[in-house]
Amino acid sequence: MGVLRVAAVQLRVSRDRASNLRRAAELIDAAAADGAQFVALPECFTGKYGVDLFHGHREALAANADAEAASGSAVLAAAAKRHGVVATGGVIEEHAGKLYNTMPVYGPDGALVAAYRKVHLSRVLGITSESDVLEVGDEATAFESGGVRVGMACCFDLRFPEWLRRHGPRGAAPADVVCAPSAFLDVTGRDHWDLLLRRTALDGQAFVVGPNVAYDPEDAVPLHGRSAVVSPWGDVLAQCGADADDLAVADVRTDRVAEVRAKLPLADWAE
C-alpha cells in the first residue's frame, strides 16, 4: 500500500513576479511542514493569467535546483530539494522559439523528472484563446511518487473525459492520482469547477489534486480559487476558499483506489 500526503497550493497571483515566486516558495514550505510529500501549484503561477501576458512570463525549464532562482521552475526545483518532496506547477515554457503551457515536475533531489505540456488549450466564451500564442502539447505524462502513480492534466483538460481515461482503470497504466494545475475562470468555475474535479475522480476512480489560482476581484476576468483534493469516491477531502493564498492537504492511499475499483470494476467492461 502506498500513502502519499498531497497539497494543492492556492496562490493569489499578482503582477509582482518576485512576490509570486516568494509566496509560492513559502507555501511549499508550509505544505512540507504539514507533512506533504507531493506539492502542486496552480497553472501560470508566476504572473497574471492572460493570452496577452504569456510572453512576459516565458522561461526555460530549470533542469535542477542549481538553476537561477528567478524563474517559477527554479523555485519548484529548489523547494523540492530543500524539503525532499515532489513539486509541480504551471509555467510558460519557452523552447526552441515556441511557448508551451507546461507543468514541470521536480523530484526530492531537485532534478526534473517529468514535464507535461498542456494538450487542450483553453478557448472559453471568447475570453481566452491560448492557441493564439501557445503550442499544443502532444504527450500524456505520468510518474511515480512514493509508490503512487500520478497522471498530469491541466485546467481545460478536465473537460475531455475521453482523453483523461488514459489515467483511469481502463488505461494502459492507470494512475492513482490525477493532478490538474489550473487557472480556472470564475465565470465558469462557479458552476463547473467542483463538478469537473469530482467527475474526473469518479471516471478515473482516482484521487484528484486541483490547485487553482485564487479569486482577485480586481482582475478583468477573475479566476475561481477553491483549490481542492477529491477522493476516488468523489468526496471533497480538502478545499480552500476563493480569494487567498491557502493549502488543501489530504492523504492519498492506493488501497482506497484499489477498493473503489474493486467495488465498481469498470475495467471489466468491453469498449
UniProtKB/TrEMBL annotation:
The Swiss-Prot or TrEMBL record annotates one GO molecular function as: hydrolase activity
Q: Which residues form the CN hydrolase domain?
A: 4-254
Kindly indicate whether the keyword Hydrolase belongs to this entry: yes
UniProt entry keywords in alphabetical sequence = Hydrolase
Q: SUPFAM superfamilies in the record, alphabetically?
A: Carbon-nitrogen hydrolase
Query: What InterPro entries does the database record attribute to this sequence?
Result: C-N_Hydrolase, C-N_Hydrolase_sf
Q: What is this protein called?
A: Carbon-nitrogen hydrolase
